[in-house]
Amino acid sequence: MAKFCAFGELLCDVTAYGTSDRGFPIYEFNPGGAPANVAVALRNLGIEASFMGQVGKDHFGLFLKDTLTSKQVDVDALLLSAAYPTSLAIVSNKADGDRSFSFYRKHNADVMVELQDIFLQKINETDVFHVGSVSMSDEPSRTTTFSLMRHAKRQGKIISFDPNLRVLLWEDLNDAKRQIEKGLQLSDIVKLSEEELFFLTDIKNVQEACAMLMGIYDIRILLITFGSKGCASFHQDVYQHIPSFEVDAIDTTGAGDGFFGGFLSQWIKNGMKMKLSSRDLALYCRYANACGAIATTQKGAIGSLATEESVQTFLEVHNG
Ligand code: ADP
C-alpha cells in the first residue's frame, strides 16, 4: 500500500478543564498539530504513515512522540531537540463562553527545525507528501518546509496541502497569503475551508473562487469544507457539493484533519488517479465527510479520528 508522509508542527493544546478544589484552573494536555493529526487519520484508515518534525526533548515532546507511536505512525524522523522546547497552545475559556488562545512558540522546537537528510530520505520512500502553513510562518521552519516541498516535487511525489490558516501565528496576514500562495504553486491536492478560500481570492462565490485558483495554479484536486454543510470538490472544471451527515457535534477540533485523511485514504486505496470521474470523487468526499463528522462527536483531535471500522459502521447507520 502507498505511503504517506507529513511534515510540520507537533505541539500540546493545553485546554481548560474546570477548577481544582482549591479554586485554581485545571488544564488538560491534548496532542495537537494538524499535519500530525492527518498522519494519524491515514494510519487509522490503513495507510502506512510517517510524521517528521521536531519537538523538545522534554516531558511534552516525549508525550507527543509516544502518542504518535501508540497510533502506529512512523516517528523515525521526529527529532527531539535538547536546545528548544516543545510548543504549547493555551486555550482558555473566557467569561462570555468564547475561547482565547495564547501560543508559547517563539524559538520552540517545531519552529527551529532545520533541513535533515532523514527528512529527504523519508520523502524518497513516500508516495504522498503532506504539509500545512503553520510551519511556513517563521524561520527556519519556513525554509525547511519549502525545501522539502521542492524536493518532493523533484522526486515526482504527490503533494497534499491543507493551509489551515492560524491567524494568531502571523504578524502580517499579507505574508501568510504570500506563503500559502507559494505552497499552492507546488501542490497537487489542496483542502481549504470556505473562509480560507475567501481569504485567498477575495471572491465570495465559492464556485468562482475555486475556478480562479484552479486557473492560476496547477492544483489537480481542490476540496472546500463547509463544516456541518459538508464539502465541495473542484476537478477538471467540474464543481460539485457533497452534503455531510447529521451528528451531535461536541468538538470540531480535528474535523478538517479527519476529513482530509479520509479523502486521501480513499484516493490512495483506489489507485491515486489524477483523473477521476465525478462519481468516484463524490464517493471519496462522502467518505471524507463521514470521517469529519465522526471527529466532531468526541473531544480532542487525535483520539476522535475515525478508524476503518468506525467509518464502516457510521456509513451503514447513515445510509440513505
Ligand atoms: P476545517 O475548517 O478544519 O476544514 P470543518 O469544520 O469545515 O473543518 O470540517 C471538515 C469537515 O468535517 C466538513 O467538511 C464536514 O464533512 C465535517 N463536519 C464538520 N463539522 C460537522 C458537523 N457539525 N456535522 C457534520 N459534519 C461535520
Sum this structure up briefly.
The protein has 320 residues and is of the alpha/beta class.
Outline the structure in words.
By secondary structure, this protein is an alpha/beta fold. The chain has one domain: Ribokinase (UDP-N-acetylmuramoyl-L-alanine:D-glutamate ligase, 3-Layer(aba) Sandwich). Helix content is 38%, strand content 24%. The chain is built from ten helices and 13 strands. The protein has a nine-stranded mixed beta sheet, with helices on both faces. Strand 9, helix 5 and strand 10 form a beta-alpha-beta unit. Helix 1 packs across helix 8 and helix 8 runs antiparallel to helix 9. The longest helix has 18 residues. It is globular and about 55 Å long. It starts with a strand and ends with a helix. The mean pLDDT is 95. Adenosine-5'-diphosphate (ADP) binds next to helix 8 and helix 9. Adenosine-5'-diphosphate binds next to helix 8 and helix 9.
Q: Rg, please?
A: 19 Å
Sheet/helix structural class: alpha/beta
Average pLDDT level: 95
Count of DSSP E strands?
13
Q: If helices are DSSP runs of H or I spanning 4 or more residues, what is the number of helices? A: 10
Distance between the termini: 31 Å
How do the strands line up in the largest sheet? Answer: 5-4-1-8-9-10-11-12-13
Keywords:
alpha/beta; UDP-N-acetylmuramoyl-L-alanine:D-glutamate ligase; nine-stranded mixed sheet; 10 helices; 38% helix; binds adenosine-5'-diphosphate
